Amino acid sequence: MSLVIVLLLFAGLSEAAGRILPLLARRPGMPRTLVVGLLIGAGLVEAAVFTLWPLTAWTLAELPASSPPAGEALEWTPGLVAPLLLCAVLAFPLLGPLLHLVLFVAVGAGLAGPLAAATDLGWWGAAGCVAVAGVGLGLAVEAVRRLVVRLSTPRTPEPIS
Fold first, then answer.
1. If 16 and its partner were Cys, which of 42, 62, 106, 137 is the partner (CB 3.0–4.6 Å)?
2. Domain residue limits at 61
3. Does residue 6 sit within a domain?
4. How confident is the prediction for the chain on average, in pLDDT?
5. Tell me: the pLDDT tens digits for 28-43?
6. How far apart are CA 116 and CA 112, in angstroms?
7. 78 and 7 Cβ atoms separated by less than 8 Å
8. Is position 160 within any domain?
9. CB of 126 closer than 8 Å to CB of 108
10. φ, ψ (nearest 5 deg) of residue 6
11. CA torsion, ordered 112, 10, 140, 24, to nearest 10 deg
């Protein structure tokens, strides 16, 4: 379990670095303490989102069922997290957003197998739950990112005429 936590933290930090470093390149001269704080904070948020992905998919899989699934809840394993870490490393914009997306789909497909085995949905239903959970979490994080950028951007005062 501790290996899974470490891998999720590294994946979150890598994903955050892939998103923050291009912004820093456009704004030279930012204080290092601010940069480190942004990386750590964003890395923890990304790791939390990665951690919530299987739980959210499991919750979605429970919705159509009349009774809770008999299997154990879907959890990350080192084998499922390792491709996620690779995917997060490839989040850097210059390394290919398409490859990043393909790897996320592969990680999601890897999550769909255990979810299908634990529920009565079948593989395609489980894959749908994993996809909806991933897209929903991704949109929520993107909305928060945009809100933080909007709130942290200095406003220029209106000219006095």
1. 42
2. 2-152
3. yes
4. 77
5. 777 778 778 888 888 8
6. 6
7. yes
8. no
9. no
10. -65, -45
11. -140
Torsion sign, CA atoms 155, 20, 47, 145: positive
- Decide if 161 is inside a domain: no
* CB distance 46 to 122 below 8 Å: no
For the chain, how many residues are written?
161
For the question of whether the overall pTM of this predicted structure is more than 0.85, the answer is no
Q: Are 112 and 35 in contact (CB under 8 A)?
A: no
DSSP codes, 14-63: HHHHHHHHHHHHHSTT--HHHHHHHHHHHHHHHHHHHHHHHHHHHHHHHS
Number of independent structural domains in the chain: 1
> How confident is the model over 72-92, as pLDDT tens digits?
666 777 777 776 666 666 555
Question: By C-alpha distance, which of 141, 78, 139 is closest to 110?
Answer: 78
The answer to the question of residue 84 being in a domain is: yes
